[in-house]
Amino acid sequence: MEGLKEFITPTRFSLFGYIVAIVYFFAGVLFVGITSKLRLNERRTFLCDFSGAQPADKLFLQAQCFDKYEQHYNSPLPLYVFVILNFATVIVVCLVYSWCCVKSRVDKLQAAVIPDAENPRPRPRVETRCIFFLYFLHLVARLSLGIIFAVLQNFMFYSGGFQVAFVCVSSRGLESLNATKSASSAKSEPITYCHNSVASEKGTCALLVLVVNVIFAFLVFGEIVYLVVRAFRRSKFASDSEFCANYFFHQSVTALTPVCFRQRMKRRILQETEFLEPLIHCGKESANERVSLDEIFLDVIIYTGRATDEFLRECKRHLIYDFYLKPESKKGSVEIKTRKELFLANEDADNPRKILIVGRPGIGKSLLCRELLRDWSKGELFRNISERFKYAFLFQFRSFYAETTEKISLWQLFNRAACMDGPVDHGLFQELLDNPETILLVFDGLDEFRDQGSCTANEAARFGNSPTEEMPVSALFVKLLQGKLLPDVTVVTSCRPTALESVEVSHFERTVEIMGFTEEKVHKYVSKYCQGDGHTAARIWEHLSSNLHLLSLCYIPVNCRIFCYFLKELIKPSPPDAGSVILPTRLTDVYLGALRLFVFSHHPEFRDKPFRGNESFSDSVEKTLTDLGSLARRGIEEGRLIFDKEEVAGMTNCGLLTQLPDARLSPVEFKQRFSFIHLTLQEFLAAREISKMDPAELKIFITSNAEDPKWQLVIQFVAGLIHGKKMEAIEGIVSCLHDSLLSKSPSRPSRRKALLMMNCLYEYNDEATVKRVASMLKQNRDFHGFIQLWNCNVTPADCTAIVYFLKHIEPLNYYLELTCNSLGDGGCKELSKLLKEGGPVKLVIPENNITDQGLIALVEAISADSCKLKKLNLVKNTSITPEALGLLCESLKERSCKLTHLNLGGLQLTDNVLTQLCESLQHVNSSLTYLKMTNDDFWTDALILKLCETLRHPNCQLTAIRISGHKITNQGVHYFCEALECKHCKLTLLNLTSNRITAVVLPNLCKAVKHQNCKLSTLHITSWNINNRSKQKLEDALEAAISVRKQAPKELEPSISFRETSHKLEFFHAVHF
């Protein structure tokens, strides 16, 4: 039995050969049993027909006939003996090979691969080929025996088979039986008929034995061919160590080769990290739009050290946004511009090998870890492989949930790395132990580790430092940081700021913080996300950049991806030239969706669960959001954006809070501090709680806090959250807006309150309420039609709300002033919608970052028949090019254009622009009467001549010109004098500033203003060289000319209209304003 047990052990056979041998053995046992039983039954069941013979003779004769049957069909061996020999010889060959030939050799090699706790290094490899040849010879012997026994059975021993009917001839028996018969009868040999009932069963059994021999011979032959092919393709396959390990012990020898292991692992990493996980599972993104990590990944802003929190201390709102979009970290920190620089020496550390990456939820920590592995796999992390990192392993702490109490060894830890393609065998493990400086270990998501509180030096000290000793994952992690395991290994760890208290930061040689995206990177990310779809990318970027709240929230990459996903899904069905798709511009709608996705992406209750878009918050999550809302409101009330650990207890894992650097209270005492990941999220959560107030209390809250900047966005969110509810609270918004628009000269708080209330009405989204406010204004005599929102930080998103309100106060003529804001092209496009429906009669939009696209949108609106705009001020929008200004000039020729006043000061004026403008002024449809072009570097005497020629044209309607140019000389004034004397010139006001005019030209001016065709009543001049005497002469001349025109008959001045007090002459001596 002991020998049989050894035989059954498959360590000296291949798995296939072992199965074939075992099956053959049991087949032999079966056939031996069957044939032996048939042998015992055959003599007993063999019958012959001996009619008339005595019973004793019958038995003798039957035995004699059976012997003859045996000689005829079973000679020289009975079938059962043949079967025993057939199977036994093969089994003996297997036993001789296994016990006598290779046992000691195989046992030694098997012992060499068993891990040694003290020395994992494998023993030297045996390069001889004895075992291969012995195994091959034993297969050949088995094949030969199978063929020999098949041939013997079929052609020599049992070629005739086994007959059931047998004719037996026995002369001695017959003589005894027929002694009294005649002599003639005795001469013929008697015949006896016999019957063997077992013969058919023996024939079937013999046939089965033959079939088994043939089948197993083919199986053995197949294994022989396989070995020959393997040995021919790779000669080392036949060596004893590799042959046993690969063929007998079923271990992958290829994985033991470090080069092959690295190649396979790199391929697996590139495959498994190729695509991003979809935001919503089973949605369109996961089915049709798999996002490639390489195509969309964008380097985030990273600084060494922790970011300061100075932006949270008494900081204005726009500075807080600047922090999110253009982060600044504390003094002495260094920007990490490339991923390679994480590992390079810098001002903060010399050759850092223990690196901690800190970042808020969704900031890109996990993607950075994956990208580090991809860089290593592609050989891009370090171009020169001799510099660093032959091996890289990624460990995700979330995968160790079940191992918080289980103990594992360092070798087992390696085998649990992500993206593994085969195990780390003991040979490779020893390679890692011998060269730890070539290893990069990336631990992602320490905050997701359930046993993070045990990652302390005291806890790790309970265990030894042997690489084969089993201990908790937390202890292994700490020992790797301490260098007690794998000294000089490089360890990169990522975690949220909220988990920093669970690890001793002193173990890390470099701490960096991911700041997120700047505005430029957000723009680039949008382009990458749309994958070449320029139309969609342009619309998404226009929408995000037009709203400061959304844009600043995009500093977190996952938020940027959320917005891109939803906006792209809205835009995608529409053709490029379609303008019917309305993107969500109401902040409340956007933040409600963003909050859902953010909570489902980062809250522990939903972590690693697919989000399908129709889930709702559980009671526990809703309670957490309620607590956060109360905390957010209290923080805004107290002017605090930083909270203590006790205040955020039970809320830190929701993904909406981030931990700031600890505050030092004393040399030995520190205080943990937290803040919301973004100010707008704090305001939105506060609004969720405030919107639950009683309607009367909510109205009081709105009216009492409307002018307080810290509550303005909160109130806007509240208006959106109470949408659809007929509440008394909305009356507070109505009254605030009504009151703030009645003043002719409103203060800045009043102007900002008016803008806020317009946004609130837009968020509330109720047409009836807006119409009621507009009606109240139109009926109020104190409303003078002035909508003044200058210097209110108006954005394109605000323009949407402004247009939403103003379109309801038609047909009232009103002025809209938006000086010194941030309208941009998006704001102009919104205003163009208002102009096409009538709009204001005066639009003042200087210094608003308008470019060509914005001006083109305004030009299209100005040309509409329904547009009422008469006065347009575009001063200091320096990004507008001459080409776009040319289009504006061309629009003045349109019959539908009603512009009478145009201010182009501080724009990019060129000769071509002035030429086009002059052509338009000479057009019969031109109605422009006032032109201001205060561009100091533009005007020259030659250009003044071109303008003056236009003033003399009969169709030119200009009555007032204001220009400035330090290149204008006396010659330019001479051209104006000639124009003033022309009968077609209609100028009543001339303003010349910033010029080089001298007193020499004053006589010409005096002559011109006295001319009978001159209609001038107001003259502004800036000069350095005009004395009081000259000034008095010009004043007298102008007054005399005006007196003459007043006394003239009406028919001599049909186009002149002026007041006596309107004449004025101004000089500035030696001072230039």
UniProtKB/TrEMBL annotation:
Database matches in Pfam families: NACHT
Domain of life: Eukaryota
Domain called NACHT: residue spans: 353-499
Transmembrane segments: 12-34, 79-100, 131-152, 206-229
Primary location recorded for the protein, binned into one broad class: cytoplasm
Any GO molecular function: ATP binding
Record's GO cellular component terms: cytosol
Keywords: ATP-binding, Cytoplasm, Membrane, Nucleotide-binding, Repeat, Transmembrane, Transmembrane helix
Cell compartments where the protein resides: Cytoplasm
Keyword set includes Transferase: no
Cross-referenced SUPFAM superfamilies: P-loop containing nucleoside triphosphate hydrolases, RNI-like
SMART domains per UniProt: LRR_RI (SM00368)
Protein name per the record: NACHT domain-containing protein
UniProt organism field: Pocillopora damicornis
Lineage of the organism: Eukaryota, Metazoa, Cnidaria, Anthozoa, Hexacorallia
